[in-house]
Amino acid sequence: MQNRKGIDIFEHSSNKNFEQINTIIGHFFNLKESVYFKMNSDDYRDIVVSAQKKLNSINIIKKTIKNISEELFYALDTDKILVQSLAYLRATRPSNVKSGEFIQFHRESFFGKGMEKCFNVWTPIKGVSEKNSLNIIPMSHRIPLSKIKLKRKDSKFTKRYSAGHKIGLLYKDMIITSGVDLKKKTPLVVKKNHSAVFECNLIHGSAENKTNKIRFSYDFRIIRKKDYNKNMFKKQNFASGKDYFIEL
Ligand SMILES: O=C(O)CCC(=O)C(=O)O
Ligand SMILES: [Fe+2]
Predict the structure, then answer these.
(1) Mean of the per-residue pLDDT values of the chain
(2) Would you call 95 helix, strand, or coil by DSSP?
(3) CA nearest 121: which of 164, 166, 60?
(4) Which of 24, 143, 170, 217 has the highest CB neighbour count under 10 A?
(5) Residue 98 pLDDT class (50, 70, 90 cuts)
(6) Is 122 in the pocket of ligand 1 (CB under 6 A)?
(7) Residue 91 CB less than 6 A away from ligand 1
């Protein structure tokens, strides 16, 4: 982003996408919420994987970019971008019924080389409020990586190559132990029909769901072509089976 805060919020030029997304959510989550609250993690995550597949089959990334392209390309100062080959659907249950369905505070570069220059496109769908939204640490994109101390830990909730891994949950947690004042966390409030776009270096996460409804949102990453170096992304994206970043 060209602005100081490393974050911008863009309104979609049409709400047709949201209608389609809500139909998909309604189709895959057609039972009473209490049924999902009782489900074990494997069964629940399989449903999220299926809904995520459907969401990607309607080209949700392309449609989202199209809807915000005017402001986005202006902010990035280019329309030459690559996009993640798959969007993650987040369907986080209330934390009093299930834990381990949100990601701790992080930068994308904690998990993969080359991600320092990317941007997150994060879009709420349903049931998102300041009580369960993604949190950000304002201005944290300016903290040099060398100042941040991390502890790596196997996840208690998610195994590698599992359904959880497919929906973007981590099989290894990276816990920030110093260098960032996590007390400064602020909920990212994004209105209906809007997407937040923020620098991947802006520390974000900890979207624990303190409401009694499932929180639905989707997200993907983009990068300017000039900042992309294919050699940095040797691994394929496990969930899509494709390169991490692809042409729009
Ligand atoms: O929505 C979430 O819980 C995580 C989102 C995230 O980490 C991202 O968009 O990069
Ligand atoms: Fe993230």
Answers:
(1) 93
(2) coil
(3) 60
(4) 217
(5) confident
(6) yes
(7) no
The reply to whether ligand 1 has any atom less than 6 angstroms from the CB of 205 is: yes
pLDDT band for position 179 (50/70/90)?
very high
What pLDDT is stored for residue 164 in this prediction? 86
Find the largest Cα–Cα distance for the chain. Answer: 47
Asked if 74 contacts 10 with a C-beta cutoff of 8 angstroms, the reply is no
What pLDDT does 168 receive?
84
Q: Which atom of ligand 1 is nearest to the CA of 90?
A: 1
Tokens matching residue 216 = 């639905």
Kindly report the CATH number that applies to the domain delimited by 10-247: 2.60.120
Does any ligand 1 atom lie closer than 6 A to the CB of residue 124? no
| Pocket mutation for ligand 1, best pick of 61, 90, 103, 128 (most atoms within 8 Å of C-beta) | 103
More confident residue, 196 or 232: 196
Q: What is the CA radius of gyration of the chain?
A: 17
